[in-house]
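S1.2 Input.
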Amino acid sequence: MIRRRQLEMQERVRERREREDAAPRLRKQVAELVSLSIEVEDGSGSHLGAKTRYVRHVVVERAPALFQIPCSDSGCRDGGHDVTTPVMRALHAGESEFSGEDVCGGWRGGDHCGRVLHYVGHATYRWDTAQPRGYEGS
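S1.3 Output.
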């Protein structure tokens, strides 16, 4: 049983790497982007469940334009959070801060997983770093 789970995990990692390798590069999609970090909070839909919090720092120069975050529930199968579309929409719009949430569509036993991912993105663009904050031009 343990060996089978290890093989399944290795297969998921291999598939994720293939998707990342095939995705366009973030630098080419959003040329003005300098830095990006995404604060992630992943927990159950209720206030009683355990939550996972972390910050994902994106290396803009070589990152794929793909934002798929695995479900933090180790018992979840075929789940995860693909927030690529809303994140890329915010980056293309030049938003410095954006947020959203996504519900895991995977399965835990015979039930839907339903873990909720909340994220807040912080982006810096070339035009942000070219002038001091508060600069309004003349």
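S1.4 Remarks. The chain has four helices and eight strands.
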